[in-house]
Specification:
The protein has 807 residues and is α+β, with helices and mostly antiparallel strands. The chain is 26% helix and 28% strand. The protein has 20 helices and 38 strands. Strands 4, 5, 6, 12, 13, 14, 15, 16 and 17 form a 9-stranded mixed beta sheet that branches. A hairpin with a 6-residue loop joins strand 18 and strand 19. Helix 2 crosses helix 5 (150-163), helix 12 (467-479) packs across helix 17 (662-670) and helix 15 (587-594) packs across helix 16. The longest helix is centred in the first third of the chain and has 21 residues, at 58-78. The protein binds flavin-adenine dinucleotide. Flavin-adenine dinucleotide (FAD) binds at residues 10-16, 34-37, 41-44, 46-51, 173-174, 202-206, 210, 225, 227, 322, 324-326, 349, 351-356. Flavin-adenine dinucleotide (FAD) binds next to helix 1, strand 3, strand 12, strand 17 and helix 9.
């Protein structure tokens, strides 16, 4: 075994081998994979080998498509058969709600280039002869599904990597990982030590244990998973003879089942409701090529449905039941990327569908390690989407929920209950007492809307029980004054004698003077966005406000760029600083009643920021509002939040103050065409595309990150433009990820939208190619399988001349 390497990859499952292959393919060959046993000795060897392209996140779906297309390449390069059979598949809906969901999947597939087609339940047996069409309301045909040989694929990756110069050491167990003072990693094994610049944790079932070697508690948990294999079935033989092809894959969402042909019989797997974790605290090191004891009672309810939906199963014997463990993150997506605070330590774990996702995970990680950027939008898989709050017990609750809901519908207005409430702010119970219906962002309970007694969300793809109440909250803001909680924003304090110099290089905007705020895009080297913030200059101290879900993501970026000499300190304030926001034409009158500071428009204009007492509480107040109205954001230490909340409510009484939640906030920002991070603003768009170029100080003297690329793109930007559309929708608005049609062709996608109650319009924001971005007509947006006329809306629907906001 070599003593030094550029990269050590820990784990020879499908994911580790894919990472190794992609690193080698991109030209890094001083790399070694360490596997404690034979390759495939974790969850890989007993996988059912199914592969599919669909995923709730379109960016993950793209990587799944890449993975499936890669198999031919590694087979050719390695000479190792992968056993890939692209049979195609059918996705089945037994309810209308599921069919609505499937229509959304087909629609997304249009701009992802997936070959999906809606078919009727009656047509479905022509594709999959074992199903009883009377049990279903409709289906979708997917030409890219199939299955493969898990061991063949893993060995093909490893052999192809070896051919390119990588090394694989089997029967070499990593026992400890120690960081040296020079930043290199000592990877200590039972066969000696390798010193490496980079370490990749692809430990699969043992990813947690490998993480613990460097003090990390990764939010992953293994779950038991069962599938059965039947005896040979005459129906299968008959179909094979008649058509000359295999029976295709089927996913029966309402039965929570997947099926495919396995030799002369069938394989049926289920994500049962009575989900069972495996090795909750510690994965035993002596586990390897064993299976777990099957528990047919646990999967019996799903099998009952399966045998009804596919009657041929009633007449056949079960040959074998496989029960094996594999790992999940709380949301079921992989954990990929560099770990904040551990330079050179990378993870590629929590991959629950290694044969659909492994290739994409390997590619993204290799790009990231070699180029400094994953090369696509992998936010949905980024390990930084979790913070310390994703504890072991939280992960346990969420993974169980996710597993048992793997094939369940999640409606756009549905909030899942497991692991909640976990993080709450001091006003939580005050808001709850007023009917707040909460959602979760970054583990924190946030008010979505306020329900009168006896009313709650009715889950639906269409406008629902909250519609009129959210409308009322919106009108309260636009006509009087509204109060909401904004503690979920990320807040960073930047101090130190180098702070100004550093911020000028990190952020693309012109830095504000003391007492002023500004919008602050942050760019990567390639000139694309990596953040959009509000920056406040508090004189000697800077406050950056940003998206709460990206706190870890942005801290990883900030810390990576901190000067070594300690001239700059940056701190994520988390819930050590909480907030309330007040907006509407009467907002100033309310504020004036509760502070001695002069908050007149002259003394405290738009974008001003100051420390002031609200009641008796020391606060920071910024004259800014995401509602696009006259408004204020008020920040305070948590111990003051109840006091400030009460005093604002009391003072606001005479002005008709009312509470509003994030759904009303969404409706308000839509009529201002304001985007948000992780929706409109993502690392695949440049500032011109995203319409943020007006906040980029192209000519400021500081050589900010991404400046050269941004200056080059300034005239023309990239391919796309963010646009706002008014949609002729009647009872269902966009959610996000719908296709945008232009003159009969899919040309773009929706990033977010909804109903703008004040304007009384259905609004969608989305990206379209720049050549058509200024066409007023010809657009259509597809919602639930129906195309609706969409008209470009260039000017904001509300306060286009900024009189309210600045007045
Ligand atoms: C019953 C079942 C059916 C499944 N069906 C499918 C399916 O149809 N399609 C699909 O895509 N996925 C399926 N999966 C999931 C799939 O198996 C996983 O997504 C995949 O195997 C994850 O691969 P991995 O490389 O991340 O982890 P693993 O396969 O667990 O590999 C990790 C490797 O790391 C090694 N290792 C760990 N720690 C160390 C150490 N300290 N030193 C050295 N080596 C170490 C282990 O020995 C192991 O070989 C199924 C899983 C199960 C259990």
């Amino acid at each position: 075994m070599k003593s030094h390497a550029k990269v050590v990859v820990i784990g020879g499952g499908v994911v580790g081998c894919s990472v190794l292959y992609h690193l080698a393919r991109h030209g890094w060959t001083d790399i070694v994979l360490l596997e404690r046993s034979e390759l495939t000795s974790g969850s890989t060897w007993h996988a059912a080998g199914g592969m599919h392209t669909i995923n709730g996140d379109p960016n993950v779906a793209k990587l799944q498509k890449y993975t499936i297309e890669l198999y031919r390449e590694i087979e050719e390069l390695s000479g190792q058969a992968t056993g890939v059979h692209v049979t195609g598949g059918v996705l089945l809906a037994a309810t209308e709600a599921r069919m609505d969901w499937l229509r959304g999947v087909v629609a997304k597939g249009r701009y992802l280039g997936l070959d999906l087609e809606e078919i009727s339940a009656r047509e479905a047996p022509e594709l999959m002869p074992l199903l009883d069409p009377s049990q279903f309301v409709g289906a979708v045909r997917n030409s890219e599904d199939g299955h493969l040989d898990p061991s063949g694929v893993t060995h093909a990756y490893a052999k192809a990597a070896r051919k390119l110069g990588a090394e694989v050491e089997r029967f070499t167990k990593v026992e400890d990982i120690v960081r040296r003072e020079d930043g290199m990693w000592r990877v200590i094994t039972d066969k000696g030590e390798v010193v490496a610049e980079h370490v990749v944790n692809a430990g699969g079932l043992w990813a947690r244990e490998v993480g613990r070697m460097v003090g990390l508690e990764l939010p992953v948990l293994a779950m038991e998973h069962m599938y059965l294999i039947t005896e040979d079935m005459p129906e299968v033989a008959e179909w094979n003879t008649k058509t000359g092809s295999e029976i295709i894959h089927a996913v029966d969402f309402d039965g929570e089942l997947y099926l495919r042909q396995e030799r002369g019989g069938m394989l049926m797997g289920t994500y049962e409701k009575a989900a069972k974790p495996w090795s909750e605290f510690q994965t035993p090191w002596n586990f390897g090529h064993e299976l777990l004891e099957p528990d047919i009672d646990r999967i019996a309810p799903s099998l009952e449905v399966g045998f009804r939906h596919f009657p041929a199963f009633q007449k056949t014997g079960i040959k074998q039941i496989i029960n094996g463990p594999f790992t999940f993150a709380p949301d079921g997506n992989p954990l990929v990327g560099p770990v904040r605070g551990l330079p050179g330590f990378w993870v590629a774990c929590g991959v629950m569908a290694g044969f659909s996702q492994g290739g994409g995970v390997g590619l993204a990680l290799a790009n990231w390690m070699i180029e400094g950027d994953p090369g696509f939008d992998i936010w949905a898989m980024d390990v930084a989407r979790y913070g310390d709050w994703a504890s072991m017990a939280y992960t346990n609750a969420k993974v169980r929920e996710n597993y048992s809901r793997r094939f369940s519908i999640r409606f756009p207005n549905e909030e899942l209950p497991a692991g909640r409430p976990l993080r709450t702010t001091p006003v939580y119970d005050l808001l709850a007492a007023r009917g707040a219906q909460f959602g979760v962002t970054y583990g924190l309970e946030v008010p979505l809307w306020y329900a009168p007694d006896g009313v709650k969300d009715e889950f639906s793809w269409r406008r629902s029980s909250d519609f009129e109440h959210v409308g009322q909250e919106v009108r309260t803001v636009r006509e009087a004054v509204g109060l909401t909680e904004i503690s979920s924003f990320a807040k960073y304090r930047v101090t130190g004698e180098g702070a100004e110099f550093w911020l000028d290089r990190m952020l693309a905007c012109k830095l504000p003077r003391p007492g002023r705020m500004t919008l602050a895009p942050m760019l990567k080297q390639d000139g694309k966005l990596i953040g959009d913030f509000t920056l406040a200059n508090l004189g000697g101290e800077w406050l950056i406000l940003g998206s709460g879900i990206a706190e870890q993501y942005h801290m990883r970026w900030f810390e990576r760029h901190l000067p070594a000499e300690g001239l700059v300190r940056i701190e994520a304030l988390g819930l050590g600083r909480v907030g309330l926001a007040m907006a509407g034409p009467k907002a100033r009158a309310v504020l004036a009643k509760v502070t001695r500071a002069d908050v007149s428009n002259e003394a405290f204009p738009f974008m001003a920021v100051a420390r002031m007492d609200i009641g008796m509480a020391p606060c920071i107040v910024g004259r800014i509002s995401y509602t696009g109205d006259l408004g204020y954001e008020i920040w305070m230490a948590p111990e003051y939040q109840r006091h400030v909340f009460q005093i604002l409510r009391e003072a606001g009484d005479e002005f008709g103050i009312g509470l509003f939640g994030s759904r009303a906030l969404n409706a308000l920002r839509l009529e201002k065409n304001y985007g948000s991070w992780a929706r409109e603003y993502r690392p695949i768009y440049d500032p011109v595309e995203a319409g943020l170029d007006r906040f980029v100080a192209y000519s400021k003297p500081a050589d900010f990150i991404g400046k050269a690329a941004a200056v080059e793109m300034r005239e023309n930007g990239g391919r796309l433009r963010l646009r706002s559309f008014l949609v002729g929708a009647l009872d269902a608005d966009v959610i996000g990820d719908e296709p945008i049609w232009f003159r009969g062709e899919v040309r773009g996608w929706v990033t977010s939208g909804g109903y703008a109650h004040n304007a009384g319009k259905s609004v969608a924001l989305g990206y379209v190619p720049k050549e058509i971005a200024d066409e007023a007509d010809g657009f259509e947006i597809e919602i639930l399988g129906k195309r609706h006329a969409a008209r470009l809306q260039a000017a904001p629907l509300f306060d286009a001349n900024l009189e309210r906001m600045r007045g």
